[in-house]
Backbone:
């Protein structure tokens, strides 16, 4: 009896093979092959007409080992899927064995030869491999590593190879878990740490006693120190105040005119830890995306054209799951007239594709230590639910589902804007500028002066409550909120980074389009 059953899943007109499909088969038949090759080549299927393409075929075997496993067949026409077979001689078998021997680490790959009934003397050659696993040593063929991107075999990028090589040795070789030389607890942003812990306590992810612990104790409990209590690189990525020694802690932001990168209107760079970059990215969204407002109760509720929660989740994923060990890597935001793209250096987990990531899946963090801290502080959800929440938010806003893509070194997600929105900073619907000018010029001079100072302090980058109070030289929190925050939220001059959670400990405030117009007219 055969050891396994053949199961095919048809997804988006492509064939994806279930785990049962990759169990080694014995006595494979032509019917089995026909079931396997039903459709185009996929991430787990490579077809070659003859062993004249032997080297290309074994490159794909190497890529299967480093990606998700797969099948390689010789004797099948890739375009027509016609099973032709080929003549197999002793020399053919020796050539195959020689090429397989060039795979490192050494691996035993049984090769099956299946007779083609209507072509006497011709056989299909089948090679099946299981994925080696992300934590295993990456495979090379003829001294080069390969991976599979959809149905294409490509050379594995150097930073990916180095990352996987480090991971295969021991967890302590991961960049995030290496000692960060030259920094101490005093170099970390205590406010960020305690704000995150407070969120974790409120959501039941950290014990209430955490609120009373020292910063040193909290950092240790968040597993951001080594066994000898030295700070890890993960601590720097999350909380370091001065990140100048880490050029990769970079967020690139651009607003392009039109739908390509030929001309940009705004081009910015921000350096800093995770939270600094998250704030900078959200401020850039608030600056360049349309905002609509409505009165809810006694306050005005501002909404971005693409839900802020969806953008924040996608940016959080990019900042958390990116490659850190490459000092030339970064995260990018690109806003076009018709779409928004968020990209990061790295690749999707081997267990996921650009399509299956939209389905229910487990969590496969690129940087488990950083991801665990963000989960405990509620900035990241576990169990791979983030993409689902992004899609739900887009559907509620009547927007298309975001699209995920990747190449050999970059992953990016694309949000479609509802309509083409050419950038025109001076115009606004319903003549807002004229109305705003009339409103601000009719203010009492002293009130206008206070408003101008406040909006200037908020600025293009936004600020949290503590910073705003310090810049305004005011100390009474309640009075400041009543005099500046509440009325300007209601008027629509500013918006919250976390509108769904007004008391969020990481709350920041940003100028809306209306706020920028008011500032220009004061």
Residues:
């Amino acid at each position: 009896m055969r050891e396994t059953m053949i199961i095919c899943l048809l997804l988006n007109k492509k064939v994806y093979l279930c785990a049962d499909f990759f169990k080694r088969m014995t006595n494979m038949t032509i019917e089995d092959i026909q079931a396997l090759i039903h459709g185009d080549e996929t991430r787990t299927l490579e077809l070659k007409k003859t062993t004249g393409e032997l080297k290309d075929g074994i490159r794909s075997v190497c890529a299967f080992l480093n990606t998700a496993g797969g099948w390689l067949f010789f004797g099948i026409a890739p375009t027509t899927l016609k099973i032709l077979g080929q003549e197999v001689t002793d020399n053919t078998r020796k050539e195959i064995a020689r090429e397989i021997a060039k795979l490192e680490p050494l691996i035993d790959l049984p090769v099956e030869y299946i007779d083609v009934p209507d072509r006497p003397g011709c056989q299909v050659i089948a090679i099946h491999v299981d994925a080696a696993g992300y934590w295993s040593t990456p495979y090379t063929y003829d001294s080069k590593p390969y991976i599979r991107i959809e149905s294409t075999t490509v050379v594995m990028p150097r930073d990916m190879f180095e990352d996987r090589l480090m991971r295969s040795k021991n967890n302590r070789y991961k960049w995030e878990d290496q000692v960060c030389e030259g920094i101490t607890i005093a170099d970390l942003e205590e406010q960020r740490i305690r704000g995150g812990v407070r969120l974790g306590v409120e959501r039941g992810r950290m014990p209430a006693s955490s609120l009373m612990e020292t910063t040193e104790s909290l950092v240790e409990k968040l597993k951001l120190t080594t066994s000898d209590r030295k700070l890890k690189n993960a601590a720097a990525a999350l909380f370091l105040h001065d990140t100048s020694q880490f050029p990769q802690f970079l967020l690139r932001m651009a607003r392009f005119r039109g739908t390509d990168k030929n001309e940009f209107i705004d081009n910015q760079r921000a350096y800093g830890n995770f939270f600094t970059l998250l704030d900078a990215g959200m401020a850039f969204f608030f600056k360049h995306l349309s905002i609509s407002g409505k009165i809810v109760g006694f306050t005005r509720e501002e909404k971005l054209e693409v839900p802020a929660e969806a953008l924040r989740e996608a940016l959080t994923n990019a900042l958390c799951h990116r490659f850190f060990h490459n000092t030339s890597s970064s995260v990018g935001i690109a806003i076009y007239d018709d779409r928004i793209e968020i990209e990061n250096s790295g690749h999707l987990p081997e267990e996921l594709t650009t399509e299956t990531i939209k389905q229910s899946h487990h969590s496969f963090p690129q940087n488990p230590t950083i991801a665990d801290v963000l989960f405990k502080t509620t900035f990241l959800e576990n169990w791979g639910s983030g993409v689902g929440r992004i899609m739900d938010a887009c559907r509620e806003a009547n927007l298309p589902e975001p699209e995920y893509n990747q190449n050999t070194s970059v992953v990016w997600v694309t949000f479609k804007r509802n309509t083409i929105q050419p950038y025109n900073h001076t115009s606004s619907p319903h003549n807002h500028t004229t109305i705003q000018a009339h409103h601000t010029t009719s203010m009492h001079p002293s009130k206008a002066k206070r408003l101008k100072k406040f909006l200037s302090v908020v600025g293009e980058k936004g600020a949290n409550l503590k910073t705003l109070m310090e810049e305004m030289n005011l100390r009474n929190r309640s009075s400041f909120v009543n005099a500046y925050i509440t009325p300007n939220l209601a008027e629509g001059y500013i918006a919250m980074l976390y509108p769904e959670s007004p008391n969020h400990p990481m709350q920041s405030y940003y100028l809306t389009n209306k706020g920028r117009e008011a500032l220009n007219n004061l």
Q: What stands out?
A: Residues 1-26, 425-438 have pLDDT under 50 and may be disordered.
